[in-house]
Amino acid sequence: MADKQEIYDVTIIGGGPVGLFTAFYCGLRELKTKVVEFLPKPGGKVSMFFPEKIIRDIGGIPGIAGAQLIEQLKEQAATFDPDFVFNQRITGFKRLDDGTIELTAATGETHYTRTVILACGMGTLEVNELNHHDASAYAGKNLRYTAEKLAEFQGKHVVISGGGDSAVDWANELEPLAASVTILHRREEFGGLESAVTKMKQSSVRVLAPYSLQHISGNGDIIESITAVHTETGAQEVIEIDELIINHGFTIDLGPIKEWGLDTEDGRIKADRHMRTNLPGVFVAGDAASYESKLKLIAGGFTEGPTAVNSAKAYLDPHAEKMAMYSTHHKKLVVQ
Ligand SMILES: Cc1cc2nc3c(=O)[nH]c(=O)nc-3n(C[C@H](O)[C@H](O)[C@H](O)COP(=O)(O)OP(=O)(O)OC[C@H]3O[C@@H](n4cnc5c(N)ncnc54)[C@H](O)[C@@H]3O)c2cc1C
């Protein structure tokens, strides 16, 4: 029951970069805030896919590694001590008689809140694992689904299976430090920036396309070789490896949130210019949001988050100021 648990002013679903900054801004507006995240750590797609990549399109920050940006966002969010809950996927939404919203996680836990900000990207992220009977035996050893720590590949013979932008980026990043990098892709065309694909093709990266990964062979502890097969001729090649990186895409899904009665388009939640959804008291920010001229960048979410918070504040208190004061004027933030 709601009266037995704390009721928050705002519950942010998603602890990605936008959820973290939104939590900070909730603090500026003196809103009691909780962030619920499905993954065991914050950072969303940044932590999952490009922690070591340098992000260069956030105003005032000429370049920052993804992981460092998340560290700084965590520090900023902590200014006002929001509560964080990890390892919970929010699935259920119910409005109680007194207007309080009850959110339920897949694990069965409940959260009570007056408003919700959906900063859930396009949903929970799960990598598409290698479809091979031995894959689980080697996962986390020398079969990986991301190239999180580049230094671990120093001097190694690396095979990357996949042709998306992350696969191309990893090939380029690993090429200077690995003993060899081979990328195999079932189509001739690669995803990602043209300049990145050109750079990869002009480097020492060995490009096998159109090839697919047919077999992995190992000693039970590590994979020792893989078999690649030409998708048209059937020609096979056995390649000895130290590391295998699989980049076969990921599944991203709003899941049961789609059943809440929200207006959606292309897997995102429709927002008006106040970041309101069609459900009263439910707002949206970041990759989750859909509206005309939506900027699908972290910087876009850093505006939408505060707008959603201001809308939540107005929903809770129609007499409140429409916007926060400047952070430079905030009593907790002013350096004496
Ligand atoms: C390879 C790659 C490179 C990129 N490079 C750049 C770049 O250089 N610059 C840039 O600005 N942008 C870049 N982006 C885009 C950027 O990552 C996104 O715009 C940004 O991550 C959006 O942040 P978000 O917090 O809205 O969503 P996300 O990062 O997707 O985070 C959403 C979080 O919500 C959680 N979640 C979802 N559903 C639930 C639920 N039901 N319950 C609990 N938790 C839930 C997820 O687990 C996730 O952690 C890149 C993206 C990729 C894939």
What does this structure look like?
By secondary structure, this protein is an alpha/beta fold. The protein folds into two domains: 2-125 and 251-329, FAD/NAD(P)-binding domain; 129-248, FAD/NAD(P)-binding domain, CATH 3.50.50.60. Helix content is 21%, strand content 29%. The chain contains seven helices and 22 strands. The chain has helices at residues 17-28, 44-49, 66-77, 135-138, 165-174, 194-202, 298-316, and strands at 7-13, 33-36, 54-55, 64-65, 83-85, 90-95, 101-105, 110-118, 124-127, 143-144, 157-161, 180-184, 206-208, 211-218, 223-230, 236-240, 243-246, 250-253, 264-265, 268-270, 282-284, 289-290. The strands form six sheets. Strands 1, 2, 5, 6, 7, 8 and 21 form a seven-stranded mixed β-sheet that branches. Helix 1 packs parallel to helix 3, helix 1 runs parallel beside helix 7 and helix 5 (165-174) packs across helix 6. The two termini are 44 Å apart. The relative contact order is 0.16. Bound molecules: flavin-adenine dinucleotide. The site of flavin-adenine dinucleotide has 37 residues, from helix 1, helix 2, strand 9, helix 5 and helix 7.
What key attributes describe this structure?
7 helices, oxidoreductase, NADP, FAD/NAD(P)-binding domain, alpha/beta, 29% strand, elongated
Blueprint (SSEs and pairs):
Blueprint: E1 7-13, H1 17-28, E2 33-36, H2 44-49, E3 54-55, E4 64-65, H3 66-77, E5 83-85, E6 90-95, E7 101-105, E8 110-118, E9 124-127, H4 135-138, E10 143-144, E11 157-161, H5 165-174, E12 180-184, H6 194-202, E13 206-208, E14 211-218, E15 223-230, E16 236-240, E17 243-246, E18 250-253, E19 264-265, E20 268-270, E21 282-284, E22 289-290, H7 298-316
Parallel strand pairs: 1-2, 1-8, 2-5, 8-21, 10-17, 11-12, 11-17, 12-13, 20-22
Antiparallel strand pairs: 3-4, 6-7, 7-8, 9-18, 14-15, 15-16, 19-20
Helix pairs in contact: 1-3, 1-7, 5-6
The structure holds flavin-adenine dinucleotide (FAD).
